[in-house]
Fold each of these.
Amino acid sequence: MYIGPQGIVHGTYITLLNAGRMYLGLPEDQDLRARTFLTSGLGGMSGAQAKAVEIAGGIGIIAEVDKSRIETRHDQGWLSKYSSDLSEIFEWVEEYKEKGEPVSIGYYGNVVDLWKYVSDNDIPIDLSSDQTSCHDVYNGGYTPQGLTFEQGRELLKNDRREFKSLADNSLKLQFEFIRKMTKRGTFFWDYGNSFMKAVFDAGVAAIARNGKNPDDGFIFPSYVEDIMGPICFDYGYGPFRWVCLSGKHDDLIETDKVALSCIDPKRRGQDRDNFVWIRDAEKNALVVGSQARILYADAAGRVKIALEFNKKVRDGKIGPVMMGRDHHDTGGTDSPFRETANIRDGSNVTSDMAHQIWAGNAARGMTLCVLSNGGGVGTGKAINGGFGLVLDGSERVDSIIRLGLDWDVMGGVARRAWARNEHSIEAVVDWNRMMGNRGHITLPFVSGEGLVEDIVRKKLR
Ligand SMILES: NC(=O)c1ccc[n+]([C@@H]2O[C@H](COP(=O)([O-])OP(=O)(O)OC[C@H]3O[C@@H](n4cnc5c(N)ncnc54)[C@H](O)[C@@H]3O)[C@@H](O)[C@H]2O)c1
């Protein structure tokens, strides 16, 4: 089921579009045309930003200190241009803004210098983030300002203390520039790389919401808690994916066509994004190895698409298809610092959701069920329940699709609805209506925040 970097490109594309809607007020049917996104990192996962911002229609400016990383992304066609001259880069930005065309531009240099340049020259930036490896700053995940990538490696080998001190200063500076720019209207969010924690560890208490410690979170939003959680997972949109087991590219093209025919782009902004994603998937050439596709579909979408695929297999139009999803989803994962970060009723520190979904998937006949500790945020911090289902064209598999996919997705939506997440309540109401007497998810009785206090006060009076 490994699908290479396609998943991260799709996830980043969706995050960028939804950030545009949330923070810039973009209408549901618009993309990031003529909007700027400033960030850093063209590495393993971060390299997806370049491709994703172009697919989302925007202008990306991405700092990277390691020339070899820039060249890899450029040669691969994910990064359109690069330069180490900031004035040249911002001339390109203006040119593409005027043309209204998307472009990804690499800045070969330190992200702190990029922030300094936009701040000193008062260049407006719409959206911004950071994807240096801040989860591992002091082992070289973050190159301090003033050092080239090679000098950073050298210093790390010879004087770790000095490296730490320079990294701390660099993070402090970066924070100051980001703060200046956010006051002028730039939106910044943490991209799951522990940037805000790293800034705090560097000695900047002002990044903590309470100004003292991280107990109440940080001052900037975080991509899952504030963007993906409410806009995707709460509705059930998650990383549904499939692999054509024949290994034939023609089969993948056929499945793309089927998936496209199942999406109504006018239903919600999320459906519009998915429609565009699948429509342009072949053009964007994201396949690496397996003939695979990812699509952030909701429960109804996943069931519809899977049934259509199974029918195509039954009719002999395509070979068997393996479908599943990754962990970055609505229901299969309990991960309080990421996937379940926006479940705020306290239940996100338990792992029963992932267990129930895993066991329920097994009982419903999925081909492959996996329960694992760790993944993404680390061992002890996440439980992941994954599954795979081979679509062999049989009627038996039709019934597994109907039972299993709803369980897998709506189990997560139910948990979110019970935590009183508004969009999940909306999704459950729709699902109950659609299912009639074939299924029912209970809903919470939402009371006013002061209800318990009022009752106690009256009793004690
Ligand atoms: N993209 C996602 O959806 C996602 C999800 C979860 C976590 N993350 C986190 O994002 C971070 C990046 O992941 P990755 O796989 O791309 O790591 P990576 O180490 O492969 O890439 C990070 C890049 O940042 C560059 N860099 C470091 N310091 C720099 C600086 N000061 N200025 C400019 N460039 C600098 C490095 O040279 C490197 O190429 C990690 O912390 C990861 O855990 C990403």
Amino acid sequence: MNAGDLTDFSPGFGNQHSSEAVPGALPLGRNSPQRAPLGLYAEQLSGSAFTEPRATNRRSWLYRIRPSAAHPPYHRVANGALRGAPFEETEPDPNRMRWDPLPEPPPGTDFVAGLWTLGGNGDARRRTGMAVHLYRANSPMTDRVFGDADGELLFVPERGSVSLCTEFGRLVAAPGEVALIPRGVRFRVELPDGSARGYLCENYGEPLDLPELGPIGANGLAAARDFLVPAAAYEDDTGPVEVITKFGGNLWAATYDHSPLDVVAWHGNHVPYLYDLRRFNVLGSISFDHPDPSIFTVLTAPSVDFVVFAPRWLVGEDTFRPPYFHRNVMSEYMGLIEGAYDAKAGGFVPGGGSLHNMMSAHGPDRETFLRASTAELKPQKADEGLAFMFETRWPVTLTAQALNSEHRQRGYDDVWQGLQRNFLV
Ligand SMILES: [Fe+2]
């Protein structure tokens, strides 16, 4: 979406936003007047405990046509290929894994029906850990609305835009942008390009935040002003709407007699947002050595970090410039939004992904090592692609479908074969 046009957005990260789709709908000076303006119902949506310190306290006040409480009972519906934490279908696996993109879904697959879980960690019921999902859809959600009580959802579109019609308004995220839906916020996914495919990080724990900058100073990496929060927009529709909620790892549904996207005005800091990864101010070495990839952190949380490998200049002298060989206590799921990644010569394609679990050894493949260790070290623009990483503190346990799927590349280990002995003694 055109992030340069701020008319329909409120910029900023973590601040208190407010918006009204109808003038006068937002009460001033109080949250819950005896009668809310325009006959609306006032409702608080909390994203943190009431007593959280100010810096981490999250809530929004919604002014809606009908209160959320007016709904019939929820009943369990099929999870499809969606799974939740704890992940216990397979044993944690130290092997390096890589996948091709998911096969195309059958016609008529909407966002919820197309969700496919790769794996994750922690426990949704204890609000800790994360999950890696993939989404693919070729049909818009109609008369269906989704919400996730288990965690916040970070959309990383790879092919086709997603239009996220939320309780707070509408965001359109195209490949190269990311969008976040906070815990509990309801939304419908429409498909401006007819179909869409991408990655989805579900964060069960404390919400994603901007990283501290330390000696970098007051500016750099992702700027708070580049995060865009939607303007209020509401639906005043009656008729059956299936509201699906993910709760404790499972899907539940209730049929409402109206659209729950009926919020006319709101204010608060528990809000959806959009961020254009091309706005990320990439920092790196201007002397020697490759910084740790934490320098590319866009958003951070105790359970998971979101890191982007955006176009940048490589100028290090006497330096092996691609990411070095490493073994980490962290576990890394990598995906590719477009192009190619500078540590892998082949096999890692847009829509695919790789998993390097805790302490598993990885780094440049043989071809990349040979090329980078003999290359002439002139300034070089690394702009062949846009890759990202969900980096998490605990090992990622795969779902059975991810371990056994036909699109998992058997023989991924081979990319490190042929790294021969070069020892000169
Ligand atoms: Fe890594």
Amino acid sequence: MEKKDIRYRKVYRDLKPLYLDLDDNLARAKKFYEEEEIHSCCREGCSACCSQLVVATRWEAQEAALFLKSLPDFDRYWQNLGSWYAKTKELLQQRPKKEAEWEEFAGTYRRLEEPCPFLFEARCAIYPVRPAPCRLLYVSGSPEACADPDGEFDQLGWFEEAADPALSILLEKSEAGVFPLLVASALA
Ligand code: SF4
Ligand code: SF4
């Protein structure tokens, strides 16, 4: 398989087809790695990566808020959002204005070891509408590196390339921010 198999731009009016195309590109990237015998350690129920800072778009947060509202245990996630905010707000208030400083800020956030408010029993409660950054994590090595706040991830590089068309469309549609904050604002 060739890398050029990734799809190119279309006009998207809602998220579902965009996510389908993104997932399709990522599936091609996975196949590429499998053919090269480069294996990922990502598994269902493995969730250490869900304590990272997730930066996504307002468009995605609105979709996630609608999905959350439809859940019978919505109250649990609303409460989780409150507890998550209480534990992270001091740090989040210091979030940088310059894009170049976000990587370092993400490292500091990871050291809080605070799980995403939408994680329940090691599963993502909003899995069908999880934002793009949560779709494109695919690492080699060991999950212990993900659980260690100072551990080095080995993200398989072509994943980001395969996600680029979708990411640029998302960023054109709406601004990006800290995902749970944007969801809380969409729910308020
Ligand atoms: S990124 Fe790390 S924690 Fe997340 S599923 Fe993959 S191996 Fe597990
Ligand atoms: S939205 Fe879902 S996949 Fe993403 S960090 Fe939260 S629980 Fe994990």
Amino acid sequence: MHDLTTGPAVGWGPGGPVIVAVCGKGGAGKTSISAAIVTELLRDPARRVLAIDADPAVGLASALGVEVTRTVDDIRSDVIRQLESGTHTERRELLAHLDYEVFEAVREHGHLAFLAIGRPERQGCYCQVNDFLRDIIGTLVGSFDAVVIDGEAGIEQVNRRVLEKVTHLVQVSDGSVRGLTVARTIQAVAHTAVAYEQAGLILNRIRDEAEAQTLAVPAELNYLGWVPEDDAVRRSAMQGTSLLDLPPGPFLEAVRTCLARMHLPAALPATRSRACGDGSP
Ligand SMILES: Nc1ncnc2c1ncn2[C@@H]1O[C@H](COP(=O)(O)OP(=O)(O)OP(=O)(O)O)[C@@H](O)[C@H]1O
Ligand SMILES: [Mg+2]
């Protein structure tokens, strides 16, 4: 675990991917903002982007128009079932095969790759399998320029089930006191327990600058900006269309402005994909 008092997070080092985890209160707009971040990162067609849906309800998949056939949890459940009935030799073989299974579960959608984590772990300790899976996701992530993780409310689930470290923690809140309280709690947990380099807060579904000004955002949340209620986003949800097809408009523009305050995507070296060969996982 990274102790923020001792300096910057470990990160993935120079040339490693930018990993953005999106967290916040239920319904605040995590999935919509994650999809907008993916859209923004995909504007450079040379960039390889991996979207990870860490929400058991797989909301990001439908927001991006991706069909999920197999989740990491499906793989985990299959392996555990086989381990419980198998021999010691089979156990080694099964675990050795896990990376292939995870790579197979990645859906390709143009320049976008997609992985769904699935349901939270069930009872029982299968630490070795869990650790293996997290290591495999870590290896997979290293083949991309940028990774966007649509998390559950808190970052600790992302930390436990997906990756131990991210580079950017983006919190999403609506203008409610409850949303900002949840954001403070997530930030406090992240500050002590999770490795990240930068964190920031996006206020979603705000009417205008005057309304944004009335909200007392705690300084420790590193306010990045506000995103308006956008009819195109509402329509997309009502019609079940992919947010990747959203035309340029106030929603995407506002998310872009917020990202720029975290130096994204500028922080991504243009040469990164070349440094990783063809970037294939
Ligand atoms: N800026 C916006 N303008 C219009 N509609 C929005 C906006 N942001 C989010 N919504 C809508 O609000 C609803 C909830 O958003 P979203 O699913 O992104 O939230 P969430 O935080 O991922 O929710 P959950 O916690 O259930 O996963 C969706 O129907 C989405 O279309
Ligand atoms: Mg969601």
